[in-house]
Amino acid sequence: MGAVFQFWGEKLSFLRKVEKIAEDIKTMRVRGAARIARTAVEGLIITAEESEAKNEEEYLKDLKISSKILVSARPTAVSLPNGIRYVMKRVLKAYRDGAKLEELREETIRVGREFIQNSFKAIEKIGEIGARRIRDGDVILTHCNSSAALSVIITAHRQGKKITVYATETRPRFQGHITVERLVREGIDVRLIVDSAVNYYMDGVDKVIVGADAVASNGAVVNKIGTSLIAASAYLSGVNFFVAAETYKFSPETTAGRLIEIEQRDPTEVVDREFLKKNKGVKVLNPAFDVTPPQHIDLIITERGIIPPQAAIIILTEVFGWFVEEEDMY
Amino acid sequence: MGAVFQFWGEKLSFLRKVEKIAEDIKTMRVRGAARIARTAVEGLIITAEESEAKNEEEYLKDLKISSKILVSARPTAVSLPNGIRYVMKRVLKAYRDGAKLEELREETIRVGREFIQNSFKAIEKIGEIGARRIRDGDVILTHCNSSAALSVIITAHRQGKKITVYATETRPRFQGHITVERLVREGIDVRLIVDSAVNYYMDGVDKVIVGADAVASNGAVVNKIGTSLIAASAYLSGVNFFVAAETYKFSPETTAGRLIEIEQRDPTEVVDREFLKKNKGVKVLNPAFDVTPPQHIDLIITERGIIPPQAAIIILTEVFGWFVEEEDMY
Amino acid sequence: MGAVFQFWGEKLSFLRKVEKIAEDIKTMRVRGAARIARTAVEGLIITAEESEAKNEEEYLKDLKISSKILVSARPTAVSLPNGIRYVMKRVLKAYRDGAKLEELREETIRVGREFIQNSFKAIEKIGEIGARRIRDGDVILTHCNSSAALSVIITAHRQGKKITVYATETRPRFQGHITVERLVREGIDVRLIVDSAVNYYMDGVDKVIVGADAVASNGAVVNKIGTSLIAASAYLSGVNFFVAAETYKFSPETTAGRLIEIEQRDPTEVVDREFLKKNKGVKVLNPAFDVTPPQHIDLIITERGIIPPQAAIIILTEVFGWFVEEEDMY
Amino acid sequence: MGAVFQFWGEKLSFLRKVEKIAEDIKTMRVRGAARIARTAVEGLIITAEESEAKNEEEYLKDLKISSKILVSARPTAVSLPNGIRYVMKRVLKAYRDGAKLEELREETIRVGREFIQNSFKAIEKIGEIGARRIRDGDVILTHCNSSAALSVIITAHRQGKKITVYATETRPRFQGHITVERLVREGIDVRLIVDSAVNYYMDGVDKVIVGADAVASNGAVVNKIGTSLIAASAYLSGVNFFVAAETYKFSPETTAGRLIEIEQRDPTEVVDREFLKKNKGVKVLNPAFDVTPPQHIDLIITERGIIPPQAAIIILTEVFGWFVEEEDMY
Amino acid sequence: MGAVFQFWGEKLSFLRKVEKIAEDIKTMRVRGAARIARTAVEGLIITAEESEAKNEEEYLKDLKISSKILVSARPTAVSLPNGIRYVMKRVLKAYRDGAKLEELREETIRVGREFIQNSFKAIEKIGEIGARRIRDGDVILTHCNSSAALSVIITAHRQGKKITVYATETRPRFQGHITVERLVREGIDVRLIVDSAVNYYMDGVDKVIVGADAVASNGAVVNKIGTSLIAASAYLSGVNFFVAAETYKFSPETTAGRLIEIEQRDPTEVVDREFLKKNKGVKVLNPAFDVTPPQHIDLIITERGIIPPQAAIIILTEVFGWFVEEEDMY
Amino acid sequence: MGAVFQFWGEKLSFLRKVEKIAEDIKTMRVRGAARIARTAVEGLIITAEESEAKNEEEYLKDLKISSKILVSARPTAVSLPNGIRYVMKRVLKAYRDGAKLEELREETIRVGREFIQNSFKAIEKIGEIGARRIRDGDVILTHCNSSAALSVIITAHRQGKKITVYATETRPRFQGHITVERLVREGIDVRLIVDSAVNYYMDGVDKVIVGADAVASNGAVVNKIGTSLIAASAYLSGVNFFVAAETYKFSPETTAGRLIEIEQRDPTEVVDREFLKKNKGVKVLNPAFDVTPPQHIDLIITERGIIPPQAAIIILTEVFGWFVEEEDMY
Predict the structure, then answer these.
(1) Which residue of C168, C193, C225 is in closest CB contact with D197?
(2) Do E299 and A324 touch (CB under 8 A)?
(3) Which of B31, B144, D312, E134 is least enclosed by beta carbons within 10 angstroms?
(4) D159 and D261 share one domain
């Protein structure tokens, strides 16, 4: 990014701040899908406040530079470009509708704050909407430790519904233990099982609720390894499978054919070094996520409402703009 | 059993030995489906050799007493009554066909040794038959640590076929580690994965091969927890699912409606006591096995040939006698 | 509602009329999804004509009061809020686009009449669109007595196509008898069967066509008890399953997570009192509707075109406004 | 049959009695699958007791004449030829094994009585075997009014298991009312529903248990109209579907390609004459049975044990003789 | 059309040209979905350039006349009305937004050229988007000879990915031979098989990619005979099935209930006349296309992005306007 | 084989004849599954007639030598070992039951002739049994040119049932043309289609009937390439899929794990040499058969009755002996 700075010189002080933000995202000082998206949008608000552009066109150029810097900070994060696109789509529309420089600044700030606001309330809103689908007496199975999924369960519980939860331990990192702690604290009846006991208990389950790391344009859900296996089991047992996901988890890239890459994590999460030394030649594969196909998902609960997975593309279209035209947003 | 001894008195020295065997089975000094069955059949051979019966009827009475003692040593073991029934069915038939006392003794010993012999060779035979189904280049997924399943894989490997194996770690007791060690020692290309990564890799798998703790009369297979989940994944991906099982694993009880009971094991296999103390109220459920329905199983490889699961009842009929008539065997 | 009236005083004469309309809906003097929606929209037209608001904001307040009164007259009716939302969405947009008081009044009246007009023609339009999918010689199965479904069948028949219809008797109230009468009058070849004979005849059926009481945001269809059972049979036999439903049957509430409640009707529709007295303790359950999942539905025929069930949310988005933002419409 | 009598003359007094029995079956003085089979076998016992045959061949000729008369009394009854074949198969085997005239008589009588005895105990035995599959707390759905299915339910209930039963009313003849009465008398918690509410409640059902009018060689089950529809619903919801059927309900004819014919009953069971007069041209179709395919059946509970439907042919082979060779039995 | 000309007289010289274009389409001098659509849109551009309309209303009348002439030139071509609707929708919107006569002309020309431009680049764009879904080492099966499908394969190949292709010969006209020639020329590893060998090789296939002649509003795909059979095979083997289709192949007519008609081609494509003469009475049926249901399609790759088939209606809504309101566009 | 002859010397003239028969089979002077099996059994009859054995043991040794020579003549033919096993199983049983030398000879000849007789009548018998499953008005689809399948169709037609047949052309060798000729000659209404049009017409088909080259022990059917694809289509459309196969087509080898090998035929059956020369590098794959899994087969029609595919192993058990014990038969 250095080259750009040399070129734009001293005047562009906002760029310094935006680059600082990008740095924080790149080095993972800022983490978590929601925080990353909000922080990036802050970068656009700063641009709006500090850009010294003289006319609308210069202003948009500044915004696009900031966008590019921010998006490239972590190209694989799904929420980051969504935050940027949310703002840019609306600002570009205002420009096309004839808004003047100051109006564009105001719109940028207004829309940016709206996004941040929505993001903060998303988990709560998902809890509220999702809890309406939970009945008194429901037995729910969850996997890993998802704020959105837990928000649904805990909201229903606080509404006085009696809930029983099966929580998987979630190998290799046992995030299920955190889920158990959280639910026990709420006073919810929770049962811990190993991941592979899912099918054994599925017949007695009413609903599976999990979170998402990303939702593809065709409604496929990327989530913690094991999710697609649980979905297969639920599908064959006729059990409803719900995903709780904030809209900024929806991946516009996938409409353009790009696949969400699945990270391979360190073998030592699975076995100790001793084992590796002793069993020369064994490969320990440790994928972080898998992909659940839309056919195995009944509903996706977002902060904007409940949709069938095949309507994921509507979220992408309505909230973040249409298909492959995105290119010119940054 | 004491009462029986007082009644029968000194002469019945064989009963002492049979009771000793039963004791060894009960206290698990003798373990493993195959060993239990062979040891029980030894009990019948001893009865044949040492019974002081004066005529055919007395001899059968002695045999039935031994049978009862042996079978009740561990009522839930599937292989035990199978061993007994294998011998009794043939001896009773010889009796009905008019065999005399000495012929009955000889038949008991001959058939008993045949059973023991078959049992010793069963794993090897399964390896030989099953390996014919493995092609050069096959990618095989296995779960837990089954001698029968490994026999198929290793035999194919020794025939010069290039095999790649995915082995699940098999929570909570990590039997997959033993599988890995065994396969690495053979020089087979093996990849260890957590149980919940099964669906992620299923698309690249050619065959799943697992063992069995028991095979029900309708072809359902009882095996290590997680097996039915893997079968669900294989089914939905169109991957062949094979079970390798000795015929003495087939459960005649299930034809009479009795279910195979699934053992719940200790929570501390799953979490440590610390966790339980900290999270008061959490239930840790730890079922040892689950049941894979016949619809998700393509073939069962036995030492007597390959059958579709729906033909399990033929094994029960042909090898161990027909349906509910078993009652009068012991 | 009394408190509101005291507060607003004499001037608000339109409220009297609106409340009268709400009363008629509440007491079921006005019945039927279509009539309820049209009558409620009349209430908004009256508000537009008689509101004494001095400016745009006052006018919108009046409209929202009327909306609230009308919608709360029968909270479970799906068509009622749809009628209100259809008008309010467009009036609010006009307001945001800068329309003045008189223009808002006119828009309210124009859009209100458009809705009423569309509603009147919806059944006919569905008949016309749906009939294009019927081929000469088709064998159609229908359940209960749906105007929309019959419109498709009769329109196709009048176009000269030879149609054979299986009509279920539809226990417990035998609405199938009315269907038979209607079709016999049209000269259509009709066969009456008991509800449980559906699967027996399904192999010879080309299409199932039923109506809907409500369509959820994920494309699930609420209709007369038995519909989901017929859909299961059609699904397994590879027979097309069509739903004919006016767009005001689409339930926006379900996008916000609310479920459509299934009414339990009186046991005496199923058995006589004699039976109940004689069989003390028996529970007679008599649900009025069931829910057919979108996976078992091929197409939904609306007066605005044919959609796959997963696109139900497009109807809700395009026709009645987007997701959970609805709150501020009334 | 008259011609035969003239030919055989006075001596063949047993034929008179056999013909009388055949007459009783034909005119339905003897009804019900079990009673018909037992009565026909009585005819063979009478033949054994009264035949004046001088040698084995003459005796077999007499038996075959009786068999032919009995079987042709009601060619569509499944149990009738099964009874005959049960006896004849064993007598013919004895003949081939060298049995003499008196031994053949004795064998006929012994085997005949065995069949009758088994038949009397079959329902009870099915109850005992089937009840082992019922768990405490099970919710069971049943259709029509089957002694065998009710035997399973009531036996489980008497064993102290808490059972809840959904009983369908079973149009058009409401046999479900008899089921309700029977279960209420036993003190079982029973819920009556219309036939088409089956899918609505299926999610809360643990097992479906129905009877059978006939079981085909491929495991397909012929039973009261509506059974196959319930099976479709159970299949799609992952609910176990059990059939309780005595072995004499298994149809050997279907191995030879013959189909079981489905009776069409009188329209006035469905509607009154008034309706028919008013709606000229309507066809009221009233099939008595439908056919449930083996893929939708989990287990068949017989008095000889539990089998998967694909093993139906084993019952036919083992109990009633092999495939198409039946021709020469009568 | 003659009557129209007489009525409009000399002044309407643009109509001559438009009619000439229509004639070229009708007589198939202009062929191919893309060329037909582009040529028809040229007709609208000519109308814009040469219409002598005096005001906006007259101008729209002229445009609608041209539209009607062009669309009726080949009523079954899917792309033709799409081209017309693409332009008309935007021009009508401009008119409603208050555009003046000259602005309307300009908009017509601008939008028309945009459509033509997009059409030219569609195949290339589909290749680029689709290739992102192809992995190194993928085995792809294709059917017939589709530019869009081949664009995906060849683009991926040129990106350096190793691709193996199974190409079906595609009876009766062997278009698979052209596909083979094209791929061999590119240096791609290609295997030719008869159409019926598809299932034999399906297990080793990673993705099926085919083109489309038309995409219905519910996501069903009309394509070369055999496509739906391949999709059935892929579906049952768990192999991804992709369709590559330009957006102008999406059929708006099907939202209005109209079916896409399947052409029956000449028998002599299948057998020679000799055969027909020799086998009097044989019917040789030769349908050109079949219909693949959306349930068997994973993704549709368009030049505007990738969608699940159920979202086909979004393309129709967003790109070509909403549902049945289309009537008044021409 | 020369070495054997030197060892046994002049006396063993029967071996000359047996070796001559083996030679005829090896060089394909004797072809066709049925003829091969009958000819091989002739070899055993000759052995019985001409063996100069002095006692039972010598005689069996002679029989086993003949068996070995015959079976190794064409190791991949399924019917050949079946014929041998049919005879040997019964002769060995007679020996175990105490039959003397002359009785063994007679039994060999009797059973051998029985097998030959059955084989001659098998096609006719299959026609008779299968035709009972055909209803008046049935639309049947068949593939390739199978005597057994045509026997069913033609028998039904001759019984006066109106049958319509879809015949696939069956690339690459167009055996469907022979089928058409045969059916036209019978006066049956026949429609010829290309192989890939199968799914297009499947909805209007009542039954698919095909032949078999081999039936595996799990009921999988090896038949002309394309069969498994048609079965997939039938399965998804809910159309019955019947296989007509003589019992000597059942493959006992597959119970022992051996797979039936699929022959790859010459590329020039698919394309001409010109094409291959022009498209250097293209591989033309031409497998002769594929394998239809038992899940997609409803019934197998044999000359001994109708079975579900899962009961194939019963045919192997009952007719040709049990599982892997076959080794000692020759």
Answers:
(1) C225
(2) no
(3) B31
(4) yes
Q: How many CB atoms lie within 10 A of CB F8?
A: 13
- pLDDT on residue E11: 52
| A17 and A91 housed in the same domain | yes
Q: Residue E180, Cα to own-chain centre: how many angstroms?
A: 22
pTM given for the model: 0.91
Output the six-digit token pair for A296.
Answer: 């195995």
Residue C327 lies in a domain: no
Backbone φ and ψ for A289, nearest 5 degrees, come out as -135, 165
Output the CA angle D162-D165-D168, nearest 5 degrees: 175
Query: Mean pLDDT for chain E?
Result: 91
- CATH number assigned to the domain comprising residue E233: 3.40.50.10470
Q: What is the pLDDT of residue E9?
A: 47
- Sign, CA dihedral F271-F272-F274-F280, equals positive
pLDDT at F323: 55
For residue A110, the domain's CATH number is: 1.20.120.420
Which of F191, F200, F232 comes nearest E225 by C-beta?
A: F200
Tokens of A21: 């933000």
Residues D309 and D213 placed together within one structural domain of the fold:
yes
Cβ(E229)–Cβ(F233) below 8 Å:
yes
Among this protein's residues, is E136 annotated catalytic? Answer: no
> In the 8-state DSSP scheme, what is residue F144?
S
Task: Please report the pLDDT score of residue E322 as a whole number.
Answer: 57
Count of positions (residues) in chain F: 330
Do E211 and E253 lie in a common domain? yes
Does a structural domain hold residue B328? no
Please tell me the distance in Å from D138's CA to the nearest CA on chain F: 30
What was the pLDDT predicted at F256? 78
Residues F176 and F307 in one domain: yes
Give the neighbours of chain F: at least 3 Cβ pairs within 8 Å: B, C, D, E
Q: Is A159 within 8 Å of A132 (Cβ atoms)? A: no
As a whole number, mean pLDDT of residues E23-34 equals 90
Q: Residue D161: how many CB atoms within 10 A of its CB?
A: 15
C325 located within any domain = no
Confidence of residue E328 (pLDDT cuts 50, 70, 90): low
State residue A154's pLDDT score. 98
- Report the C-alpha gap between D100 and D53 in whole angstroms: 12
Count other Cβ atoms within 10 Å, centred on residue E55.
11
Question: Which residue segment(s) compose the domain that E157 sits in?
Answer: 126-320
| Boundary of a domain, candidates D108, D124, D140 | D124
Q: Is the pLDDT of residue D144 over 50?
A: yes
Task: Indicate if B140 and B270 belong to the same structural domain.
Answer: yes
- The encoded tokens of residue A148 equal 């959105």
Question: Under a CB-based contact definition with an 8 Å cutoff, are residues D142 and D167 in contact?
Answer: yes
Decide if E188 contacts E209 (C-beta within 8 A): no
Tally the residues of chain E: 330
Predicted local confidence at residue B261, as pLDDT: 84
Bridge partners of C305? C302
Contacts of residue E311 in chain C, CB cutoff 8 Å? 310-311
Residues A11 and A157 in one domain: no
Structure tokens at F197: 């049009």
Residues of C assigned a catalytic role: 144, 213
Q: Does E264 touch chain B (CB under 8 A)?
A: no
Question: How far apart, in Å, are the Cα atoms of F268 and each of B42, E165, E172, F284?
Answer: 64, 20, 17, 9
Q: Span F176-194, mean pLDDT?
A: 97
| Residues 6 or more apart whose Cβ sits within 8 Å of residue E75 | none
Nearest CA-CA distance, residue F296 and chain B, Å: 12
Contact E147/E123 with Cβ under 8 angstroms?
Answer: yes
Are residues F261 and F288 located together in one domain of the fold? yes
Neighbours of F255 (CB within 10 A): 27
| Chain C contact for E251 (CB, 8 A cutoff) | no
Higher pLDDT, C298 or F327: C298
Q: Decide: D246 and D307 in contact? Cβ < 8 Å.
A: no
In the predicted model, what is the mean pLDDT of residues F50-55?
A: 94
CB-based contact B156:B189 (threshold 8 Å): no
